[in-house]
Amino acid sequence: MKCEHCTRKECSKKTKTDDQENVSVDAPSPARENGEKGEFHRLADAKIFLSDCLACDSCLTAEEGAQLSQQSTKEFFRVLNLNKRCDTSKHRVLVVSVCPQSLPYFAAKFNLSVTDASRRLCGFLKSLGVHYVFDTSIAADLSILESQKEFVRRFHQHNEERRALPMLTSACPGWVRYAERVLGHPVTPHLCAARSPQQVMGSLVKDYFAKQQNLAPEKIFHVVVAPCYDKKLEALREGLSAAPGAQGADCVLTSGEVAQIMEQSDLSVKDAAVDTLFGDMKEATVRRHEGAGSDGHLAHVFRHAAKELFNEHVEEITYRALRNKDFQEVTLEKDGEVLLRFAAAYGFRNIQNMILKLKKGKFPYHFVEVLACPRGCLSGRGQAQTEDGHSDKTLLRQMESIYADIPVQPPETSAHLQELYQAWLGSPGAQEVLHATHTSPVRCLGSLDIRW
């Protein structure tokens, strides 16, 4: 049976509804192993089905499978319970970072405005024992700004001998893992070197914030709330944090996993404002970047490139659907000449078509925003699913409407970005925390033999 993302003629990957032999990664309970019952032992444990992940071609090794088992509510509660014990040497500062694409899910799930949903989620997490709750928008600001700079640089460098274009975004871990593990050259050189918002947030928390709080990075337990399971795989990627030996994200929970915790909890919750990385300030409003269901790399890079390269100010961006609604293009034209041609390719079927044309040298685009999930990050399988594993289209439409109403704030207008660039990234070599090197594929040995 083929999965909805598969482009192979045969696929051995099972879905949740196929049979009871579906492979899952389920962490052994630390409390169970030690004969202990923590305060939160009554809460149900969420299993991670490999069918929920969009990574491809037997790419989970046995070691990664073991590490992935720590990306669970059990690990989160284990740290919470350790913090309630008398042995302060084992206490850690709990930090939770929430992706903007997760907030519409909580708003729709609990019938709240997106601002109230943010405050309710923050208050609930702090009632559990979380010390700080951040919004990852500031990390997306940095990721977008670095992507803008890189595109302009690539545009100037592009020629027949050195084909620097198209530039393909690297914010989606499912797509990046597929590109690295399966496609390799000639695709990986086109991947944007700017780190994803989750990776940047890991560096912000474990390096910038840790220094502000005079904490060793390993004393912080950083949890990311995200819409898809691939973010768990992204957290396993080596070398994400600025601090040696410190993992940027210690645990990733999907929006659905957190909502399940909230529904099963009987804790008294008081709403609270989201924290910022800058002293005692609080986030006044929820904001997002321009994009129907993503962090909006395409729109922001397009406007920047038009101004920087051709001195053209673009107010309204017009998307034109081509093959389907998940493959759209945006062009900048002057005197009948196309100056810039950008595209958005969502879902693996569109990605496959893109790669085929790229390899044949018949791909006309300068820049492509690539996302593994059809319709973008809002439809991540960690939040936009029914109980039987199918896409919840009614919920997704509601989430898209909520997300569209969130105010858009361009990254250039962020009040604290210059402070970060000067105080945090001003030292020689410090900006390496914003950039990644994309590897060629390595055939995994001892994998779990899950093919797409």
Automatic annotation (TrEMBL):
Nucleus found in the keyword field: yes
Keywords: Nucleus, Phosphoprotein
Subcellular location as annotated: Nucleus
Domain Iron hydrogenase small subunit: start-end pairs: 389-442
SMART domains listed in its UniProt record: Fe_hyd_SSU (SM00902)
Region described as Disordered: spans on this chain: 1-36
Single GO MF descriptor: lamin binding
Biased composition, class Basic and acidic residues, residue ranges: 1-19
A GO cellular component entry from the record: nucleoplasm
InterPro entries xrefs: Cytosolic_Fe-S_CAF, Fe_hydrogenase, Fe_hydrogenase_lsu_C, Fe_hydrogenase_ssu
Domain of life: Eukaryota
UniProt family annotation: Belongs to the NARF family.
Quaternary structure and interacting proteins, as annotated: Interacts with LMNA and binds to the farnesylated C-terminal domain.
Name this polypeptide is given: Nuclear prelamin A recognition factor
Lineage: Eukaryota, Metazoa, Chordata, Craniata, Vertebrata
Gene: NARF
